[in-house]
Amino acid sequence: METAGAYGGGKAGGAFDPQAFIQRPPVIVRAVCWLFSVIVMGCISAKGWYVNKTDGKEYCVYNNDTNACNYGVGISVIAFVASIAFIVGEYLFEQMSSVKTRKHYVLADMGFSAFWAFLYFVGFCYLSNAWGKTEIPPVGTANNMQGAIAFCFFSIFAWVACAFFAFQRFRMGADAAFAPAYEVEGAGSPGAFPAYPGAPDPQPAYSDPPFSQPHSGNVDYTAPTY
């Protein structure tokens, strides 16, 4: 079933406007998430590793904690791919004619965005703690490591904003789904107003008492004699 405006989207099959699309807040925030993920990946990948001259092994600048570098790069790679996927989903959202499909997309957007905001919060705490324990970082790596921490922090708010926009859509869809139920309930109540001027009353407020029969002619109410 095609529903116009379901879950905050336009009518399915409508003309696509590129300028209006790129100006939509969910698309802008999703592009910001994509940009932040690129910056975090670039900072850690470029300067996050160094080779120890003593044993010739490669270590992470964050207190020699390999997991710290892998975590920062890992969540950013997934965020990079997910941001592109959700931007494509924003384009396809207007073409979704099924209300259930739109609902599933909105729920997936809201759940993923909230979860990734939490992962970036964990990453920010993790990298900050590891950087605080780093005694002497290699020369030329400090700015990149601190930049990765900063943009992990900014990513928290970007993904929270995505979850917020998805929640707004879900609430709009829920309100639209429950609105007809109240109208049907009110229309069937006794004494309800007609659906339009001049329409017959769907159910009168009062009716004749049961078991009443019309009387015709003269009726003798005198008691019988015995």
UniProtKB/TrEMBL annotation:
<dbReference type="Pfam" id="PF01284">
    <property type="entry name" value="MARVEL"/>
</dbReference>
<feature type="transmembrane region" description="Helical">
    <location>
        <begin position="71"/>
        <end position="93"/>
    </location>
</feature>
<keyword id="KW-1133">Transmembrane helix</keyword>
<dbReference type="InterPro" id="IPR008253">
    <property type="entry name" value="Marvel"/>
</dbReference>
<dbReference type="InterPro" id="IPR016579">
    <property type="entry name" value="Synaptogyrin"/>
</dbReference>
<feature type="transmembrane region" description="Helical">
    <location>
        <begin position="27"/>
        <end position="51"/>
    </location>
</feature>
<feature type="transmembrane region" description="Helical">
    <location>
        <begin position="147"/>
        <end position="167"/>
    </location>
</feature>
<protein>
    <recommendedName>
        <fullName>Synaptogyrin</fullName>
    </recommendedName>
</protein>
<feature type="domain" description="MARVEL">
    <location>
        <begin position="21"/>
        <end position="171"/>
    </location>
</feature>
<keyword id="KW-0472">Membrane</keyword>
<feature type="transmembrane region" description="Helical">
    <location>
        <begin position="105"/>
        <end position="127"/>
    </location>
</feature>
<feature type="region of interest" description="Disordered">
    <location>
        <begin position="193"/>
        <end position="226"/>
    </location>
</feature>
<comment type="similarity">
    <text>Belongs to the synaptogyrin family.</text>
</comment>
<dbReference type="GO" id="GO:0030672">
    <property type="term" value="C:synaptic vesicle membrane"/>
</dbReference>
<keyword id="KW-0812">Transmembrane</keyword>
<dbReference type="GO" id="GO:0031594">
    <property type="term" value="C:neuromuscular junction"/>
</dbReference>
